[in-house]
Amino acid sequence: MQTGRQSWCVTKRKKPDLFVAGCGAVLPEKKRWVPWASAALMASVFLVGQKRADAQIAEKVPPTVETMPGAGVIGQPRRIPAEQNRSRKRHQGDWGAFNWGNGEFAGFGPVGTYGAAPWAEDWSSKKDPKNRTDFLDPLKAIRLNESGSIWLSLSGESRIRNWYESNPQLGTAGKQHSGRFTVRNLFGADLHLGQHWRVFGQLNNGEAAGWNYYGYNSTWRRRLGVQQLFVGYERKLLGAKTGVMVGRQQFLDAPSWLVYMRETPNVPLSWNGARGYAMWNRIRLDLYNFVGTQVTKDTIMGGGFDDGTRLYGGNIGIALKPFSIAGEQVHSFLDLFWMGFHYGGKSAAVALYKGSQAGTQTRQNGGFRWYGSAPSFEYELGGVYQGGRFHPGSSTVASRPVSAWAVRSVLGWRHSSSSLHPFLGVQAEAYSGGDNRRKEGTVGTFSAPFSPRNGTFDLTRTIARANIISAGPLVSIAPRPFMNIRIRVPYLWRQSMNDGLYNSSSPFSFLSGAKLRQAGRAVGWQPQGQVQFQLQQHINWQIDGGAILMTHRMRRAGGQNGTYMLSTITLRF
After folding, report:
1. pLDDT by residue (tens digit) across 79-121?
2. What distance in Å separates the CA atoms of residue 137 and residue 45, rounded to the nearest whole number?
3. Which H or E element spans position 515?
4. Which of 482, 565, 492 is nearest to 530 (CA)?
5. What pLDDT, in 10s, does the model give residues 395-405?
6. Is 489 exposed, middle or buried, given 0-12, 13-18 or 19+ CB atoms closer than 10 A?
7. CB of 467 within 8 A of CB of 445?
8. pTM summary value
9. Would you tell me how many other CB atoms lie within 10 Å of the CB of residue 233?
10. Contact 482, 534 (CB under 8 A)
């Protein structure tokens, strides 16, 4: 991430003169869906934010487009050196060598000014008024005693999303020209009780409406629920930062293409259980055992334990010693993980030649991810093997072994010191398929049931990571510190001709029986583009658009081409 020269450090600059539009929708008059909290937060941010109270300070601060980085380190618009990660404008913890880049390899998700998990942010410096650079900083570190050893940090997010799809789910949703409008609110409080103890709680609210919409359930519409609530204890032990977290929490210590946080619906994914970790300067360990969270729509503060959904395992992370390639120093990180899944429902059903077979699945995942960067190139490589068993819902049918795999890689050239800060690369990934003609024997279809990140594959969740090969160019530029443009143009194939095409929860019904082979291996193109504006520290506007252009044989089998566009405004503090 070091580029050899520092040419883009920002000191004081004026607020970009940008106008936000295109995020509105006409909703049914009888639908009372707009939460007052979202409106209040938006009004306060826009009114007070005009004064630009967070004027950049003359130190090495990151560009504003990195305010809240996404998972997947190569996807970041620019390189962020270690000294910027620990500046007063970024809030990663003290994670030693794992502070490199977006901090994702520390195991708590990516963190910039804000993090995917609010409790991963370190706002302790804001207890001193001299370190406050933003008008909302007083809410991030509220002293509750004279010494400041007991203090409270508040957090919030309101996300407003409007999207259009011409033929949702390859035409199988039964809707055309669908428009959906969703709002979600997350409000959190992080209570620090001295040097070692903390209690973090977060509430969630979600609303959804639109026209010709489809697919809404309790993960989209929720009156009010406990998103997270855990007790944490942390201290130095054997030279390592060690900690235990017990309760309801987000879990992000995994490749984001395998497990992430359910980012498309309004209610993010959370888990119930215990997690323990130990972090030295260049090595870390992580152990965890969780059950899922039930998401209920109408019960205030509802949502208990889903004992049929489990996630457990361990991780070893290593910040490898820098090495050289072609005279350039490479910083790299290696994660080795073992992870267990147990799940049921639609995502656990196994596709047959015609129809599917219900049941539950237990899968053991063994894998790795390896990321590295040098001044002029960057790479990420990951792979996983899945073993386990499928247990049919009928006791008269024998269980079946599981043997599946996945690999993913990104390789490209980055020139951070130029005016556009371009990244030009190739992204390729493959997820195994099975043989739907068999009602017994090995299940070979890869499964990622716990909401992997969509933004690096298919934002609409139309095509899932199962029986698919995807490869194509990836281009990203950041022409201004507050702006990033990203384009992907992958081509898709089925890995197995005897297995179908999958959406986020089940196989597409049109691709079954004799059509499995008649449709051919090629699926088609899936061009995608994204423009992101970090308008102000608290305001992000993102526009996504793309299409699915299927082959003639796929269309003849029953699939349909489609286009989509999303406009998302996110307000954070």
Report:
1. 877 777 767 678 999 999 998 888 999 999 999 999 999 999 9
2. 13
3. helix 515-518
4. 565
5. 888 999 999 99
6. middle
7. yes
8. 0.88
9. 14
10. yes
